[in-house]
Amino acid sequence: MQPDKHCKINTCADLCAMHKLYFHLSEIINGxxxxxxxxxxxxxxxxxxxxxxxxxxxNTASADQLQTLDGIGSVxxxxxxxxxxxxxxYESLDQLTRVDGIGDKTVAxxxxxxxxxxxxxxxxxxx
Length: 127
Description:
This protein has 127 residues and is mostly helical. The chain has four helices and two strands; from the N terminus they run αβαααβ. A two-stranded parallel ribbon has the order 1-2. The C terminus is likely disordered.
């Protein structure tokens, strides 16, 4: 078998050095970095899942907290706070439509991540 012209291994010492380098790199990849990476992904996923499960109470949330909701930017968040201060707490999420720029479609999108405090009251206000 002829040596490959791109191969730079000329002696047994070179082969031994290459083996040590390969072993060291595989230890980094398999032992250290990959474990840390997967641990970071796991911790991040748990943090995200916990944050996603914590519903935002529109009756007590600050404008900054309201902005974490899908479809609610700074202008709508400020409008929700102003409306809440002027008209009192929301009895249901449907009452968010009294805020300019928030319609039924936005309210429907908020149902999984927002609350008015009591989950039994998040539905239709006519019930």
